[in-house]
């Protein structure tokens, strides 16, 4: 019709939409998501490479005689493996997993391996989901992954309870890769809601590390459980960015041009606010750790940098068109690059020469910064009027001084609490005289500085 009228309006709109989609997809790099995030520290990132090796150990048939050990070995004691179940024992309900009692780190670990390309049951778990099919704790979760997580909990809750009762100071850690990461994330949600079945374990002793996870929970749950769940993503990994239903991905092989056309129009004319307000939309869970090791338009790998945040918007929304999109999903590469990143963090700590007695203070400051990010993320979710969003007081946060929560909601999101700490330092070192309303520098502080 538009061609007959000599005004190709529809064709121009379609061309502009395609050009916008090409710009977003072809020129978009993985560093855009985390370029404004803060840098992770060695203290909080230390468990990641160790837990990655533990996931790799699940693939071994005999841990006393390993065949696929990474350089340096798995770093575990085979005698401390409590149980290990393969595909026959799991009956196709979940991928193989292992329970390991880590005495060296004071931890009870349940590690779940990723999807097996030769197992139809794994595909059945991953594809068992429809948009908005399953509700959980006021949000939406992946149906197939939730059923797998509930199966693991019913099978192993007695074993975990006995281990925690025998080791009351140990933490409980769930870790998984790919499909196993989604199961571990939803397993933590179920454990937190049923802590009485594990001997009333405190929430602060429960944690989860989801390595290259699928999008398995709604935005409210992803932010609310950010104090328990940690997701690790390597550069261009495709799975945490796969927003469409997975069955549509398999259908695209049959009619790829049609799916590309629909995806073009959908991504071009869908606003970010509309995506955030869709309560059924699933996201990568918890706090995000993004390992960046490549730069756009440059060849080779660079020293990896780990950035972390609890984002509300921009939570891996776009698929990166990269030749490494599938390679970055492999647990072998994630273990290797996470170990490199952790070694670089340790080198920087040694250069800075942080005293040993100040490590406890540093760890407390990391916890405070993370709590401030939780508050800021929840406040931002409430400010965006996201349906079923948690209230600003929701969650288990550490106690803070009066007036800090309001400051954290405005400034912590961008400066990670630095303004709050600076104001606290100024108030401590330069008290204000009530009579003259002028700052006073403490004499004892000045003499201490001169002596040093």
From TrEMBL:
This is Fungal lipase-like domain-containing protein. GO terms for molecular function: hydrolase activity. The keyword Plastid does not apply. Residues 109-244 form the Fungal lipase-type domain. Residues 10-75 form the Mono-/di-acylglycerol lipase N-terminal domain. PANTHER family: ALPHA/BETA-HYDROLASES SUPERFAMILY PROTEIN, ALPHA_BETA-HYDROLASES SUPERFAMILY PROTEIN. Residues 1-19 form the signal peptide. One of its GO terms (biological process) is lipid catabolic process. Keywords: Hydrolase, Signal. The lineage of its organism: Eukaryota, Viridiplantae, Streptophyta, Embryophyta, Tracheophyta. Coiled coil: none annotated. Gene3D superfamilies: alpha/beta hydrolase. Pfam families: Lipase3_N, Lipase_3. The keyword Signal applies. InterPro entries: AB_hydrolase_fold (IPR029058), Fungal_lipase-type (IPR002921), Mono/diacylglycerol_lipase_N (IPR005592).
């Amino acid at each position: 019709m538009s061609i007959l009228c000599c005004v190709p309006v529809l064709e121009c709109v379609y061309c502009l939409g395609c050009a916008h989609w090409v710009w977003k997809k072809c020129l978009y790099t993985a560093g855009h998501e985390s370029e404004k995030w803060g840098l992770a520290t060695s203290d909080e990132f230390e468990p990641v490479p160790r837990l990655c090796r533990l996931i790799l150990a699940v693939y071994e048939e005999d841990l006393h005689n390993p065949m696929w050990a990474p350089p340096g070995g798995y770093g575990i004691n085979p005698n401390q493996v409590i149980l290990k179940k393969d595909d026959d024992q799991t009956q196709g309900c979940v991928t193989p997993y292992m329970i390991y009692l880590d005495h060296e780190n004071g931890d009870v670990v349940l590690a779940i391996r990723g999807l097996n390309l030769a197992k139809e049951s794994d595909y059945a778990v991953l594809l068992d989901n429809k948009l908005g099919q399953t509700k959980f704790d006021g949000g939406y979760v992946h149906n197939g992954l939730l059923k797998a997580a509930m199966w693991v909990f019913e099978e192993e809750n007695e074993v975990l309870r006995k281990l925690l009762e025998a080791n009351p100071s140990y933490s409980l850690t769930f870790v998984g890769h790919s499909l196993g990461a989604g199961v571990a994330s939803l397993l933590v949600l179920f454990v937190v809601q049923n802590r009485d079945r594990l001997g009333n374990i405190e929430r602060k002793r429960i944690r989860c590390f989801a390595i290259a996870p699928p999008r398995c929970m709604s935005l409210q749950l992803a932010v609310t459980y950010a104090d328990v769940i940690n997701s690790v993503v390597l550069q261009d990994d495709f799975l945490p960015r796969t927003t469409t239903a997975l069955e549509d991905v398999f259908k695209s092989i049959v009619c790829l041009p049609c799916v590309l056309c629909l995806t073009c129009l959908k991504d071009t004319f869908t606003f970010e606010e509309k995506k955030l307000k869709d309560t059924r939309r699933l996201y990568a869970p918890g706090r995000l750790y993004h390992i960046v090791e490549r730069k756009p338009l440059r060849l080779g790998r660079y020293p990896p940098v780990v950035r972390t945040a609890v984002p509300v918007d921009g939570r891996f929304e776009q698929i990166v068109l990269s030749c490494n999109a599938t390679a970055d999903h492999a647990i072998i590469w994630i273990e290797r690059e996470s170990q490199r990143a952790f070694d670089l963090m340790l080198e920087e700590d040694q250069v800075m020469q942080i005293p040993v007695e100040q490590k406890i203070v540093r760890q407390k400051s990391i916890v405070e910064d993370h709590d401030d990010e939780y508050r800021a993320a929840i406040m931002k979710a409430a400010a965006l009027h996201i349906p079923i969003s948690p209230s600003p007081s929701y969650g288990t946060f550490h106690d803070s001084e009066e007036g800090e929560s309001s400051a954290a909601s405005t400034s912590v999101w961008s400066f990670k609490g630095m303004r709050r700490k600076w104001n606290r330092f100024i108030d401590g070192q330069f008290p204000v005289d009530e009579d003259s309303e002028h700052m006073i520098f403490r004499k004892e502080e000045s003499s201490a500085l001169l002596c040093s």
